[in-house]
Structure formats: structure tokens, C-alpha cells
# Entry
Amino acid sequence: MATRINKYLSEIGFCSRREADRLIEEGRVKINGLVPEMGTKIQSGDQVTVDGKRVNPTDEEHVYLALNKPVGIVCTTDRANEKDNIIDFIGHPRRIFHVGRLDKPSEGLILLTSDGDIVNKILRAGNNHEKEYIVTVNRPIDSDFIRQMGGGIPILDTVTAPCQVRQLGKKTFNIVLTQGLNRQIRRMCAYLGYEVVKLKRIRIMNIRLDLPVGEWRYLTPEELAEILRLVADSKKTV
# Structure
């Protein structure tokens, strides 16, 4: 079955689909010696190279990691241009990439893996996979703030989906999102006149943060089995 080149590179664990798009745009990917257009599909037997080196599916089992990302670490696989990148920070011997993002000023749980297929399933829009955060803002919040945050905020030419929000303290609240809009929580707070001073992700789907800042661990077989169950109905794309 023919597969889009960016999806192929992602599924064999070479890089994320977004990174594959960048490599293709830069002309660093070739199929049978020719630079492909974006969206080109490959067939069984095609030879794919990146920077002149052939890429092949690995025979090793995929790895699945959970990291408590510190503030200051950047979620990027661009190791050449970002010294504080998440890949060098972990230093894992396998080629891995992050599942989604946490911006540089944020901290908390992020997953990393060599399994491109599961990355695509988790990130695909409309799958309603929960992500939970604890957020501290710069001034006191009230019931009206909680109500507006949970009911939907107009940002980025859309209105955020209704979500669970509850107050934890004078300036702190818990929020559970099923969307992944760019800097969503910070933008939602800014719309209401608040500035985020601390943002920490404590859960992704069934995985809860249980690590000191800066440390990582492998997912347990039970955690992985539950993730696979949760994403089993994710649409496949070609």
C-alpha cells in the first residue's frame, strides 16, 4: 500500500511527521535518488534516503518514555540550532522524538518515543485525549474566571472547547484540555487579563506525573497497553 513519505518517516521512527515535512521542504529527502514533492507516496521496495543515508525500519522494539520537563528545555529535535533541546537533555541512545509540546517556560509531563505511529494517533485532532495542568496566574481568580475558562475562550480565530476547570488556591487552578492549540492556556488567560506565571502539566491521558523535575522513566507495560487501547480508534491517514 502506498504511504505518504512524511508518514513513512514518522512510522519507522526516523522523526516526527512535522520534522519530516521540514526535511522534505529542504530537499534532504530522496526517493530512489530523486527529491520528492510534499505528499509524494512511496511503494514497497522504494529506497528512501535522508542526507544521502538510507533509512530503514528498525528491528528493535520501540521505546516509550515519560519526562518531567524542566523550565528552559525546548521541545525540538533540532539539536544543531537549539542547545537546550529536549533530545540532548535526555541523552537516550535511540532516535526518539517528543509527543506534542510544552513551551520553554512550562514544565511537567511530556512523552517521548521512537514509535512514530503512536505519536500521530495521540496528536491527531478530534481524538479527545485529555491533558491536565496546574496553573498559577499573576493575580487572584474568582468563580467568574473559572466559569469563563471552562465555557470557551475566543483565541486564534476559534473558540476553545468546553473544559474542566477548578480553583485550587487564590491564584491557582486545575484545567483539563482535550485540544492542543498553540500556547492555549496562556492565550486563554491573557484574554481574561491574566498572565501565567507557572504552568505544569501533570497528566497525559492515563499517564500521571510521578517524577522529580528533570528525570525520566520508561512507561510500564500497563501504561502502554492503556494508551494503545485509548488510541485504537484513531483514524489512520495515508
